Amino acid sequence: MTNPPSGRLSATPDGTDLILTRTFRAPVEDVWASITEPERTARWYGTWTGEAAPGATIKVQLGYEQGAPWTDMRIEACEPYRRLGLSAVDEHGSWHLELFLSTRDDGVTELRFVHHLPSPDGVGEMGPGWEYYLDMLAASRSGDPLPAFDDYYPSMKPYYEALR
Fold first, then answer.
1. What 3-state DSSP class applies to 132?
2. InterPro entries recorded for this chain (predicted)?
């Protein structure tokens, strides 16, 4: 593990939100580009193709998963520089994700990542995975070496299991 785990859980009327944050010394427009432009998402998550519009379904390549498979992902919300909402259904279940960007008074851009879960079941696996991907985002932006997934899982699993 390169950093201590940072995620937290929040109960909602529909289940549980898994929330992680990262900060960047960069303009919000630049961080937005890192999470929305296919050539930039390819550096830390995977590239994508298709029409980028709310209600549209795009094809996303999970570039750092075994076999780099493609999956369909629906754009639920796209509010430039503030909010990106995505959903997907695969063999592991339904995924409802939101990314919120805001600029603090000190000029730092904060990214709040939210995975809406029906229950906290499985957070022991998902939490380390999202820590890994968000650190991949940070490394892709800074030019630092990309982290290794083995540094996150299984070492972070007990932290996330204890949040339940």
1. helix
2. ASHA1/2-like_C, START-like_dom_sf
How big is the chain, counted in residues? 164
User: Can you say how many angstroms the Cα of residue 47 is from the centroid of all Cα atoms in its chain?
Assistant: 14
Q: Model pTM? A: 0.95
* E strand or H helix at 42: none
Q: Could you give the dihedral angle defined by the CA atoms of residues 48, 49, 50 and 53, in that order, rounded to the nearest 10 degrees?
A: 30
For 12-46, give one letter per residue: b (16+ CB within 10 A) or e.
eeeebbbbbebebebebeebbbbbbeeebbebbbb
* Of 91, 90, 109, 92, nearest in space to 100 by CA: 109
Query: What tens digit of pLDDT does each residue of 124-149 get?
Result: 999 999 999 999 999 999 999 999 99
Of 13, 5, 22, the residue nearest 125 (C-alpha) = 5
* Region of poorest pLDDT, from 70-74, 92-96, 148-152: 92-96
Cβ burial 61-93 (10 Å sphere, 16+ → b, else e): bebeeeeeeebebbbeebeebebbbbbbeeeee
